[in-house]
Structure formats: structure tokens, C-alpha cells
Design a protein that fits this description.
With 666 residues, the chain is an alpha+beta fold. Helix content is 19%, strand content 30%. The protein has 4 domains: 1-33 and 514-666, no CATH class; 36-149 and 192-240, no CATH class; 270-341, no CATH class; 350-369 and 389-425, no CATH class.
Amino acid sequence: MITFGVSVPGNGKDVVSGYRLFRYQDDALTPLPITSDNATDRNEMIQKFCYLRPRDRLTIPECQNGGLMDSSDYLLVAKSNGIIEIFRDYQYRVSQRLQLEPNFILTCLPVAHERNTLDLTIAGLEFKDGLLYCCTKDGDLYIFILNLPNDYIQEENIYNPMGMPDLFEIAAPNIRDTSRLEEGILFVYSKFTGRTKLQHICYYCHPMGQQISIYPQLKVLYPSIPYFKPCIYVNLKKEVSNFRINPLDRFSFIAMAPRVPLTIYKIHLPKLFTDFFIKFVKLKRAVLKRSPQEIHDIDEASTSVYRCKFLDFLRFDFRGIQTDMDPRTWNSLMANDYVVELNCSCVWRQRQGNVKDDLYKLFHRQVDIYDEERERPASRGSLTGSMDSSARSSSLRRSILERTIDAVPCYNNSATDRFIRCIRQNTCPVDIRIVNTKLGDDPMSATNEDDHDSNRTSFLTDDYKDMDIITLDKFLCLTAFRPKYIDEPLMKLDSFHSVTKDATNSEARWALMNLSSFKKLFMITNSICMIFDTFGVVLIDRFKVVNSHDLLENDPEAFKIIDFEIGLINDIAVVITHIDKCHDCGGSYNIEFIAIVTTVAGTLSALQGDFYCHERLGKMRCRDKLKINKKHKFLDQIVLLDYEPSRKRSREHTAEDRTKRSKVQY
């Protein structure tokens, strides 16, 4: 039994959007009844979900939990108006058919630049180690400090009985917080306080105060719900399409976008911010001790304790020393009503150079590849001519640094080379995954560190030697990076076609040629990648791929494929129902999975897929399909809430069975 939610945005004027809950059981998709206020979903679209729960503890609703430890589950719903709704004890309230009214409201305030409308496009809503990141596609990053126990995690849209390959925090919990003083201080002062009515999940967030005027609809839509604003704001000044928190550092994140290379950022935490946060926590404790009720305005609370506004108290308490040392942070405190604007820097960036890929070979068929045994011909173009020796030396040095490791030596700076570099930057990333290669046998882990000293930075310590970043591009490209050692792809698969014509692989070749547009990437292990395409599913073991130019020349254990027309995908959730290794070789897997898919055509499908040991071709069947029948609405984001394994196997459905329930009313 699989329980999940699906957002149902509307593209018409004055249309109620929202989301619906579904259950997949006994090969059937069934809508679940929920009770909510439609007024809060009018003219607003749900863009991201975030489901939080304890990692290894049972979820217990607050009404049944008598202790101070929090065991509730939380559903966070981010909308296009910059509002994030927080629902506590979500599954319990659904099962009891209680009114689904949010318990708390988080707001993403327009900071640092003017905004005519409060219409946001959210690229990522991520949680890790008490920090909630909300990143917009304009590069605005809003960070909230949540009051939760250390074992709370964000559920991904995949259930894997083998466990997730991103498990860095188990080996080294909070390693960055102890190595940097300010981060360590913040970690101590933002620890879980214990759960009471006033020490809730938003205990460390700042109340809206006078900035409620930016959101006048809050008082109308949520009259009795407390609302809060971010603790930290960061402006990347770049577009973002894909966003992930760095699993080794909760104040670092990974982002990329079309024409923007994969980049690791680090947020700089100044002493002024930690001092301000400590003063804020102490003020809140003092106020709650005097009057145990929710604080709605920081200045009102400060006036009741210190007889002055909080900013005046800070100015007197710091006595100008810290404000002079860090005027930018201090000015952001004053201008943004206690929302601190912090800086971030790039600590690693992907290099997009002249790699010897299929694109290079397509435009250089007539160019002789340089032979290292022969003397290299004299370069032409910008490296020779009338420039002096110092200019030539600087230009040559720059040329070497900009060249990739496996690139062919550039004989000229032709228009063709510039054109290829421009094309290579026209990427369309659709997904990012981060894996820990230490969790399994990695034949490439024995990298010679002495050969890569030039790629090391003070940020990429030895803790990063086992971290790989896997990116998926819409244009049939899978790339793996190991930032610790190199800023170019460790592996790049962009030849999803068959070169040879072998009659024995005709069916697999046809399935490979049908691939058209990658959409979603899931990591089954640290090496096995499951890729969903418009016309099928691909399973790749990146450590076993030998021939990257003709994938069908690899063993079936390295490359498997399912030929199935899924459609133009909006979102996918995957539940792996069964996985085991081959008893004979131990290197091949039998994998059975259920994929919940929403498409542009307005369909919600439950697909069952199978990959078999030592076989190239897998199979997929549609178990059930629902179709929305309103033209002004569509199905978009999926959030996986719960999975209970079934004791009996699913039966085969015929085409008649699947068409009996083809439409659903929303």
C-alpha cells in the first residue's frame, strides 16, 4: 500500500488549486477524502512538498505523546505566493478525517530587490540538520532554523529497502559545525528544546511583526495561525533550476541551471549573526517566562523586557564594536527587519571545456588527433604573433589551465572551437543526486591523490573523497563528478545509441533509439542509476560501464533498458518492492518497482517495472491510470508519504481492467 499526495494546480483565473491524496493498493489508485479550506488555494499553485519525520522512530501524534520528545510527522507545502504551510501530525489527521488547517506559516519575504508581485517559482525545498532551505529560480535563498530533534529527515520520493546511498551524516555527524566556531555556536544554541505548546517547530524563527503588511492576505486566510519569516537570506545573483543541500555541510549547497555549471556554494556565517541569534533566543526565553504566550513582534517583546526596541538594545549591547567590523550584516538587520542577509562563495565549479566527446568528434572529423609520441606543431593564433614574451607566457598558462584533462590539444582558436564551447554550455539539467562511494565497492576509489593537488581547496577536505555528484541532463546525458579530485566529469555518458548493427540486439537497440528526453534520476545504490525517460526506463551501473560510446556492447549487468511509452513526465515517485542479488555471481540484481507518474497530459499512472538478472531488457506494465477531466487543471508534484509492503504479489491486469477507471473528477 502506497500513500502519496499530488498537487493539482489550476491555470485559469480565480481557480482553486491545491492537492489531492491517493492510495495505491491491490493494483488500484484510490483518491482519499481530505477536508481543507479551498480559499487558501485560490489563484496560488503548490510548487514543492517537503515531508519530515523521525528516521528510525515511530511517528506519534501530539495528542498521544505525553513526553517532551517530538515524534510527529510534518508536511510542508510551498506555494507560489511565497507561503510555506506546515501541517503537524499530518497522517494522523488524514486517517481521522480531521480538518487540514496548517499549524504554522513560513513566509519568503522579498529581500534585497523590489518585487512587483509575490509570485515565486521555487526550485528546491530541502531540509537537513535543523535547517530548511527554500530556493527560488531567481537565486533567492531563504533559510529557516527549525526546532526539531537531530534524527528528523526529509523523505525522498523513493522507497529503497537497501537504504539510501546518501548517508554521510552517519559516518561523520555535524563535522562542519565543530570545525568552524560560529557554526558550532549556532548549532549549540539552536538545539532541540523539547516539545511544548510554545516551544514548537518554529520556535527559532522570527515572528512577522510589522512586515505582515507585505502579506495582507495572511490575516484573512490564516486569522489564528502564527506566521514567521526567514532567519537568513542569501542572494546568489544567478538562476537556479536544481538545488541540493551539501550532505557534508548544512551551510553549503549545490546548484545548477541551464548555461550555469554545477557549483558548490558555502555560506559565510559572521560572528555578528550568531551574537544576534543568541540575543534573540535569550529575549524569547525571558518573555515566555514572564508571559507564556506566542510572540508576534520582536520589538514589542523587547520593549516589555528591555524598555526599548530590539535594534536599539543590540546597538547599545554591542557598543558599536561588531557593527563597525561587519557593517553589511548590521545594515541588513536594520533594513530587513531582523532578516540577516549573508554572503556565499563558490568553493567548487564544474569546468566546461573541450572534452573529447561525441560533440567534439562531430565537428572535428577532418582533424588529425594529436599523437603524443610526435613533436607538437607550433601553435597558431593568439599564442604567437606580435605579443611580447610575458603576454605569450600568460596566455599559454591560461590556455593550459582552461583545457580539460582528456581534451585534444588546441592547434588554433577557430570559430568552430568557440562554437562547440558555446553548444556545450547549453545544458538543460533536470536532476542532481549525491552518493557516498564508500558504502559499496568502488573500483575508481583508488585515485592517486598526489596527482590532483591542483584541484584541492581548503573547503574540499578528506571528508569529500567519497562524495560523488551525479547529474542528469534532459538531452540524454548522465554525468558523474568527484569534486575532491577534479572539476571535470569523472564519467560522462552522452551516447545513448547503438553503433553496431547486431541482429541479436535488435529489440534493445530499438528501445535505445526510442529514448528522447530524460526527466528523473534515482540512485538505487552508489553505482546503480535508474533513469526515467519519456519512452522508457534505463538502469545503469556506472562502475561497470566499459564502453561509453556503444552501451549495448557492455554486459547486461552494466546497462539495462525498458521500452515503454510513459509520456511527458511532470514528476515521479518510486517504490522498490523487491531487490536481491544473483546467488551465482553476486553482481547482478533482480529489481521490482512501482512508479507513480504524473504527466503533462493530465494522467496519474501506477506502473510496475521489472529488471532481471543477466537480461538486458526489462518489462513494464500499467497497473492503473486516472485522468483529470478539467481543462483548466493539471497534475504536477508528487510527495511520497507512506509505504506498507504487501504480502501478496500483484496480479496481471488486462487492457480492459485498466480502462474501466480512466477518469477522475477534481
